[in-house]
Structure formats: C-alpha cells, structure tokens
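User: Structure tokens for both sequences below?

Assistant:
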Amino acid sequence: MIKRIAILFAMVAAMAFGSEKKITAVLDWTPNTNHTGLYVAKEMGYFKDEGLDVTIIQPANGTSDQLVASGRADFGISYQESVTFARLEGVPIVSLGAIIQHNTSGFASVEEKKIETPKDFEGKNYGGWGSPVETATLKELMKKDGGDFSKVNVLTTGDMDFFKASKNHVDFAWVFEGWTNIEAKLKGYDINYIPLNEYSDALDYYTPIITTSERKIIKERKDVEKFMRAVKKGYEYAIKNPMSAAEILTRAVPELDEKLVKESQKFLAGKYQDDAPYWGKQKESVWINYQEWLYENNLIKRKTDMGKAFTNEFLED
C-alpha cells in the first residue's frame, strides 16, 4: 500500500512539474492558416491535457516527409501527392488526417494577363518548381478545355513570391486559394483563378495532410492517439471560432500579416471539414484515383496499396 501511494505521489509530482512527453511536429512551409489547428492545440492546452509538450518547427535540413520518415520529427505536414511518391519508394509514412477536405489549390494570374480558362495558358509563361506533376496537371486541364500545352512556356521559378513574379516574366502560377487569392485582394490586385477540382475529380486530392511514420504508429501508438485527439480539437476550434483562432496564430507567429490571417481563417473555416462527417476524414477512393491519374500520365511505373497510405482510426468518433 505504501509503495502504491508513493508511486501515485510521484506521478502527480511529475505532472505538476511538467514532465509531458516531448513531441516535434514539422511544418511543410512557413506557418500559415493551413497550420492553425496545431497552434490552437498548443495555446489552448489541448496538447498539455494529453500529456504532450509539442514543439512546432519549420523544415530546415530536408522535407517534412524525410524528417518524419527518419524519426527526426514525430509528426509532419505534407501532401497526398508527396506521400504517394514516398510510399512507392518504400518510405513508410502514413497520412493521419486531411487538414482541408477538398483541394483548394489552382492556377492564378493577375487580371491583365487575360487568363480566364486553361486554354488561355497558350502563349503564356508558367512559373513553377519544375516538377513533372505540374506539367501533367497543366496538360490535363488544357486538354479538357481544348488547349495545346505545347504552346505554354514553363519556367522554373521555385518559391518566388507570386506578386513579384507576376511583375516580371511569369503570367500564371499554382497557388492556394485560401492564401494567395486573399492576399491579392488585400493588396488591391484583381486576379483570375482556375481551381483544379473543377476540371478533374482525380485532382481533388488531399492537400495538406498530417503524417507520421509506420514505426510511430506501431511503437508509440498512444502518443499518436493523444496527438491527433488534440489536433482534432484544435481544428474544430478553428472551424467554430475563426477570428479567435486567427489571433492565436498571429500571437504565435507575429511576423504574419494579421489582416491576411483573419481573412484566410474565415475562408478556411468552411473548408477544413466541408462535407465530411468529421474533420480529417479521408476516403480511399481519393487516394486510389490520384494514384491512377499518376499512372495513366506515366508519372509512376507501378502502383502500391493506397489503403496503407492513410488511416482514419485516430479521428473516428
């Protein structure tokens, strides 16, 4: 009995002095409203309630997928397309939840470029990262609109700012509607926007997503359960309280434009869960359709079991 009481007091003392399990979550990019749920979970104490001490970092040496797969980060923010390629290469990372239920990315251009449909890409300069997926995506949209991709001049511009690029040689670029389009409005730019998911069901994939490694799920399952329980609460809070969530994000990352964050947060409040029965849910058909699209466009030479690329088990009510 005395021994049990001593153990109990030791546990209480440990909790009192902050002995939470240290966890690292790595972003895919600089902090933005795609990540708000993480920052909410941290400030509102949802992680702490689960006994976790979570540090949110930006990727430095390597991508979030590489950091998660190697064990240098416990969780990461990634994209369905990235995880698909990783699984095909035998990298055992798993998507735990879709941050946004439908693809909110597309091609944007300032209005003066007169690009209103994919056919209008003809004779224009596209600024991107030089990925074969970009080329295939442009071809897909242009084919459905009667356009000729061979008439597009593809430039590799990397992460150049959309607005700076538009003033130089770039006519259109691939952006997230919930960030760049809103930033354009705040800066007084009129832009045209062509959403991917309106032209192809296969391109309505999950982006971004939350990932971990298969090893983490097997060896430290309880930590995964706790982390995702807290993160789910964070995004549910952001859905119901977008202005308060925006304030939490800007307090955590004060260099962000407060007006942009607030407007973006209002937009994403209706996009995080959208038509899904609960936040984060993923459909196997979405994973399969995108892999089929990659295969049909000769971007991959074989297929893998997409049922192993994701799980809903840590989010189901």
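Moving on to the next sequence.
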Amino acid sequence: MSTHLGTALALAARGVPVLPLRAGKVPFGNCRSCRGNACGGRPNMKVPGPCGCPRVCHAWAAATTDPAVLTGRPWAPVWAQTQAVAYHPGGVGRTVVDLDNAQAVEWARETLPATRTVPTTRGEHWIYRGTMRSVNAVRPDVDIKSSMSYARWLGPGTGTMTELPDVVRALAVKELSTARPAPHAILVSARARVGDCPHRMPAYLDRGIAMAEQRITAATTAVHATVYRTFLAVLSTHGRCGCLTDTHAARLFTAAQSKGESARHCADAWSNALTALGM
C-alpha cells in the first residue's frame, strides 16, 4: 500500500472526504465517461452533492470517505501517480485560510483570531471550525478554501481550533464587492435599461453559462487560453447588468478545475477578463 493511500484511508476512517492529487498539486483530469458533464453530476452545479461517477475526475466533488472507492477500480491505479492527498474542508465542516508566504502569515497573526495552524511549503494553513464560500485572492497571497474547494492534507497541525470568525467571512464579502462592482457602478446598454433585464430570465442566463461550461470541458488543447476566452465572453455578454452571481462564477471555475486548472489560475483569468473589459 502506498503512503498516500494509507493517509487517505486513515482520514476517510475519521470522516474526512479525501482525493488524490497528481503532479502540480492538481486533481486528475476528467474521465471519458464524464467529459462534457455527460454524467450529469456535480460539475454542472445543477444538483446537490458529489458526482455519482466513482472516478477521480471532479476535484473536490470526487472527495470520498468510502474505503471501497479509494481502494477499488478505477481509483486503485491512480495512487501510484499520486503526489499528495487533498481533502474537502467544507465536507467536514472546516474552513482553511491559505497563507502563501511569510508576509501573509504575519498579516494573519496581526489580524485573525488564533486557531489550529499547519505549516505549508511557503506559509501556513489556518483552520477554523465552520464553513463558508470559497474565495481566492481575498488579499495578496491569501485564499479561503471551504465549500466547493479542496486543500492539501499536510498533517493535523497544532493549536486549538476555534470557530470561524466574522473577520474571515468579511474577507469574502470584500472580495465580492471588489471583483464584481454593484450594478449601478457599471455602464449598461440602452436596451438593458428598458423593462426587465433579459438576463434575469433564468433560462436565458442559464443557457449561456451552460454553453460556457461545455466550451471549457470540451477543450482538448490550449485549456488556459480557452478558460480565459470563455470568461471574457461570459463577462462581455452577462457581466455589465449585474445579473451574474457567485453561483454562476463557481460553475465556470468548477468546469475549469475539472480540466486541471488551478484555483489560482481561475481567479487570475477572471480578474484579467474584468480588467480587459474595463469592469
């Protein structure tokens, strides 16, 4: 048994949903059965819970506590290629504040309530009891990993875990207001001013997001470029009237991560598209 599989089984026995990561600390790519969300599972964000596919292709949504899944096919061959074990913090009622360097750690020590800490390669994970929306780049070199996200397992850490404080929740609110300004702060087209905004019709907006998801998951080459161009197209069409929500953005980010993109690249691509459009 590999060391990583042993770690995963031990965590699963404690009720922690886990998944393997390949080189680059990213999940394994989409399997053929689920490519383009053919399985109808979690990546399209239309149904609750994890994808029903037993494969390891859907990042955080593939995280499991079932030892039969972890040791059986088609997961079994994956462990030989695994570089790290990750877990779904939100799935076990936790939030991880990922501090990526010494400056971020110093900021946390001055700003956040003390809690359990885990050393990382470049910084620390601060772990709180409670869940919230996962957000990247809430401030320089600080990410929040909780619901619909994964974090590397780097050991149990030290210190007493405390309840998720409002100051951490407020970081997500601040990021949202910075990344997507309120509708009154954005120029809208003359057509959008007349009557109800057409994007507020669920079918219209959902169809656009679904097409964008499909464009990303169908990419076989130039995934980085495809993700950026898709984000740009979505924001160009739907971004100026204020109808896009966190849920829509999360669907696009999940589609990109199912193709092996990192959470940080998704956040950067979204931010770059906003800048390119003057938003």
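User: Anything stand out in the second?

Assistant: The longest strand covers residues 94-99.
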